[in-house]
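Why run this: before we spend reagent on co-expression, it is cheaper to look at a predicted model of the complex and decide which construct boundaries make sense. The entries below are exactly what would go into the expression plan.
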Amino acid sequence: MEVLSSLATGFAVVLTPTHLFLIFLGCLLGTLFGALPGLGPINGVAILLPICYTLGLPVESSLIMLAGIYYGAEFGGRISSILLNVPGDAGAVFTCLDGYPMAQKGLAGPALALSGVASFIGGSIAIVGLTFFAPLLASVAIYFGPAEYFVLMVFAFATIGALMGSNPVKSLIGVTIGLIIGVVGVDSTTGVLRFTLGEAELYDGFEFLIVIVGFFAVSEIMLMLEHHSSEDFEMPKITRVYVTMKELLYCKWTMVRSSLIGFVVGTLPGTGASIASAVSYTIAQKISDKEGTFGKGDMRGLAAPESANNACAGGALVPMLTLGVPGSGTTAVLLGALMLYNINPGPMLFVEQPKLVWGLIASMYIGNVMLLIINFPMVRIFTKILQVPYWLLVPSVIVLAFVGVYSVNMSTFALLLSLILGVLGYFLRKLHYPMAPVILGFVLGKIMEDNLRRAFAMSGGEIGIFFQGTINYILWGLTLFILFVPMLSKMVAKRYALAKK
Amino acid sequence: MEVPFSYDPLGPTAFPIALGTVLALLSVVIIVKPREVHFPALNTNLKTLLIVLLLFVYQLSFNVLGFLLSTALLVFCIAKIFKGTTPQALSAGVGVSGVVYLIFSFLLEVPLPVGSLFAKLLGVSS
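The model came back. Tokens follow.
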């Protein structure tokens, strides 16, 4: 089989001491970032990306390590959720619901162990899915022209609007803000300067690192001031850090089902771990919660979101690698990382960069096993790290982020821009605007505009080009479907409520 | 912005104008159907402002005072804001700036500014 031989090429890339070490380092740092309250996968990748870039690593090494940080952080997010009831990021909220009650019942150790296994199963199922599904999608995506690409972006933004965050209008405003930030700079087709305010440093537009460090590191620091009360928490005692066979078998179907849900949700452009874990938790509750134990420390309620958010990380890589449209906020950052290396993401990636793509996929198999192995003996060490005081954590994070940006640009103007965007991000987050759509808009903006204009150039200004061809029909159909999903689910919920009465 | 290219029927203005229109429409929706907004207590607002000011000063002083001194000062102040004691904040300042300096200038070989002020005093080029 072709897939297996490609995968073998990938393992050949990965099985070098350097790469194994980078996977290990990525997983370790990722778990750390996931475990620290307030810092999630997206901050982890955002803060470490500039450092990775300055290290001068080849692109596949950087990507392997950054991806390790990504799924490692999804792995580590459970630690502070279970022990402190503080989710590292939105994706870990549902882990708190049953994880924290378990810890309070004196089951902190089993909760950590079970969620570790659930994460591993979620991750594994997703990687297998990625291995077989991504090349398939890539072979279809080769037939995408500019018009198809543009409609694909419309589909992506419809998904973000319909599924992400509590308020679709706010998600869409976020996307638009991201797109507008992406417009700044020299127009690539005509050479016209747009919105540069005469500032020579803005001719190339907002640089990716500046934007993510601003939106994720700077605004995070400002927000941390408002809820950094975790010192008052009493750390629960950790007893046995393993699960029994009985406990595992009790959750087996929940884990498999949630992994599949997480993977599918992950492949939808722009959705991410928060939706994956929310959907899988709700479904697990509907199916399994006969005695009303969910939310009071039910093991299945812990296994469901944990397998889902790790599966989602694998799923989110599918559209990123095949279509160049990231499946989540963190993959948007990874996509930006590829662009930093002048690699054009899209369907040709599998053809032009097989070593990069298959190396990344192979590294995830290894990383996932590594995470499982390091998590059991090291869980106690990670719980110690949770006690790092904020007076040390916060300034360290900000200095690392700022120096990373400085060392790539060698200019303090970059720091100023980061700061300005950080303040903007702070207000947006204060007003409950989700940040991932902003980054998605920013990353996709240029591709979207280029394809729009190329499509119009091809058709000589005729709009009909967006409404012809099978792929366009399918994409428009999917877009309409996604837009109606919230309405449908409301209707179903109403029926359900009526039936209960 | 007049552009004489015929192969690009859309030109550089259409996309930004479309974005502006979308943003305006969405803003109208938000204004017409507002949802609750919770602002933080004033106390934290002032501290947040202070952090922004500190980062702004940091950015200005970066080249003048040099990486080590400006970073140490920044870390000291932020550590104080996050309720570290003075000895804790001092050690954080010295520790963080020192470790980051070592990592970047020796491990990553990224030159960080020595500071034009010191360069002048010592008579070396910065």
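Strands of chain A lie at 185-186, 193-194. Chain A touches chain B through 57 residues (CB under 8 Å). Bring this page to Monday's planning discussion.
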